[in-house]
């Protein structure tokens, strides 16, 4: 096997496979490494993906990667007295099958020319004069060393590669959500993503039901780090207290950590780039990160190939990825983070009251980051929230 590459990407999730594909398309020699023997498995995801992303990312889903088509979302108040349904062209999407999807993306990277190896765990980063220039890995029980000009860390929420390369990439516990999800059968579903807000049911998080078919769904909960209890207890309680799940059977258990605070302060260093959940490029409101990882991976792969082929792989040149990402994506995420920080301060009484006044247009505005008119509407009815909500204006 070849052991010297222009670009090595660690992690064949959506971010890493996109980075590898784009770097290979840019003419670089690329190695994509993953520790899993089957990409995408075990699943650690609700598997929801908005269809507008397909166009933005130039992506086509294979029919096998689609579990269900979604027309919109429905949001429930904590007391379940009010449900707001949002259905418009922008709320369309899919619940996908990550085991198929992740493999499809790695296949695309392989077709673009990247070498792909699975069941290969990177345990150290090789450095020269402090600059990353390769990896040490355990591949099917054998030691493997490979060198590169640019190393891309796309190793997800429990990322270690950036840290091994010398960059501080840890998320604080407070800004990490703990997610757990059961794939269940005998759960009647419409083609809607269901979201349940409640401090009692999911402190600093939410409960979701994502349909994977007419009677199969991913039923999950995410709770904020440092909250009392654990996510499994919250999920079991939600299911037990809901008549709808009386015949439901769990056929898979999925879960994982989601960094929902600020993106990393640095996304590049000499010879190094960090993308996807490893870089905390996750939507702070719903914890979705597949599309953001692919978007960042695409940019990183392009820049990595260009820099590697020009022999200019210092921080200054790799920074093109970071500046593009910070200009195009970061402002949206920071606006969403502001909303999250406000929502974290509301209790169930506030949520119930707010739900009474909001309609689908208001929720749509919130999703699009147009906070002011919604805040004004809520404050007319609930002026005591002025201090908390003023952070959004
Ligand atoms: C419970 C839960 C529900 C979620 N629901 C959704 C959702 O509905 N929609 C959505 O968009 N996002 C969701 N997310 C987030 C989403 O799963 C991630 O944001 C997304 O997978 C990020 O892609 P990535 O490529 O950055 O990392 P990952 O998909 O995590 O891929 C990282 C890859 O790196 C590999 N790896 C790690 N360390 C090493 C190593 N040392 N050596 C070799 N390989 C390594 C792993 O095996 C893995 O394949 C959810 C997350 C959780 C935990």
From TrEMBL:
User: Which GO biological process annotations does it have?
Assistant: phospholipid biosynthetic process
Q: Would you tell me the protein name for this molecule?
A: Digeranylgeranylglycerophospholipid reductase
Which species?
A: Fermentimicrarchaeum limneticum
Gene3D superfamilies (UniProt xref): D-Amino Acid Oxidase, subunit A, domain 2 (3.30.9.10), FAD/NAD(P)-binding domain (3.50.50.60)
Q: Which InterPro entries match?
A: FAD/NAD-bd_sf, Geranylgeranyl_Rdtase_fam, Geranylgeranyl_reductase, GGR_cat
Q: Which PANTHER family match?
A: DIGERANYLGERANYLGLYCEROPHOSPHOLIPID REDUCTASE, GERANYLGERANYL DIPHOSPHATE REDUCTASE
Keywords, sorted A to Z: FAD, Flavoprotein, Lipid biosynthesis, Lipid metabolism, Oxidoreductase, Phospholipid biosynthesis, Phospholipid metabolism
Extract the GO molecular function terms from the UniProt entry.
oxidoreductase activity, acting on the CH-CH group of donors, NAD or NADP as acceptor
């Amino acid at each position: 096997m070849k052991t010297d590459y222009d670009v090595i990407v660690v992690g064949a999730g959506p971010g890493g496979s996109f980075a590898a594909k784009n770097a290979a398309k840019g003419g670089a020699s690329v190695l994509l490494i993953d520790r899993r023997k089957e990409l995408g498995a075990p699943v650690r995801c609700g598997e929801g993906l908005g269809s507008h992303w397909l166009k933005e990312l130039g992506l086509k889903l294979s029919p096998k990667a689609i579990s269900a088509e979604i027309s919109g979302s429905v949001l429930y108040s904590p007391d379940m007295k009010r449900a707001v349904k949002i259905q418009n062209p922008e709320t369309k999407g899919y619940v996908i099958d990550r085991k198929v999807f992740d493999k499809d993306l790695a296949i695309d990277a392989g077709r673009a020319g990247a070498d792909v190896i699975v069941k290969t765990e990177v345990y150290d980063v090789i450095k020269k004069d402090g600059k990353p220039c390769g990896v040490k890995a355990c591949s099917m029980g054998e030691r493997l060393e490979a060198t590169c000009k640019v190393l891309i860390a796309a190793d997800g929420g429990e990322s270690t590669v950036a840290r091994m390369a010398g960059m501080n990439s840890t998320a604080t516990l407070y800004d990490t959500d703990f997610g757990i999800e059961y794939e269940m059968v005998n759960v009647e579903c419409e083609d809607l993503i269901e979201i349940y807000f409640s401090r009692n049911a999911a402190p600093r998080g939410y409960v979701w039901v994502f349909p994977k078919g007419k009677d199969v769904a991913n039923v999950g909960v995410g709770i904020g780090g440092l909250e009392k209890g654990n996510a499994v207890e919250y999920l079991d309680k939600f299911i037990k207290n809901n008549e709808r799940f009386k015949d439901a059977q769990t056929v898979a258990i999925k879960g994982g950590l989601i960094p929902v605070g600020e993106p990393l302060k640095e996304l590049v260093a000499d010879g190094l780039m960090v993308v996807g959940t490893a870089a905390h490029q996750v939507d702070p409101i719903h914890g979705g990160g597949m599309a953001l990882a692919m978007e960042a991976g695409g940019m990183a792969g392009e820049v990595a190939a260009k820099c590697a082929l020009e022999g200019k792989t210092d921080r200054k040149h790799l920074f093109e990825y970071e500046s593009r990402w910070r200009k195009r994506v970061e402002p949206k995420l920071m606006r969403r983070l502001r909303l999250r920080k406000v929502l974290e301060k509301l209790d169930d009484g506030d949520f119930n009251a707010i739900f009474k006044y909001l309609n689908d247009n208001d929720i749509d505005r919130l999703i699009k980051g147009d906070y002011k008119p919604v805040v004004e509407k809520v404050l007319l009815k609930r002026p005591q929230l002025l201090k908390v909500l003023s952070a959004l204006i």
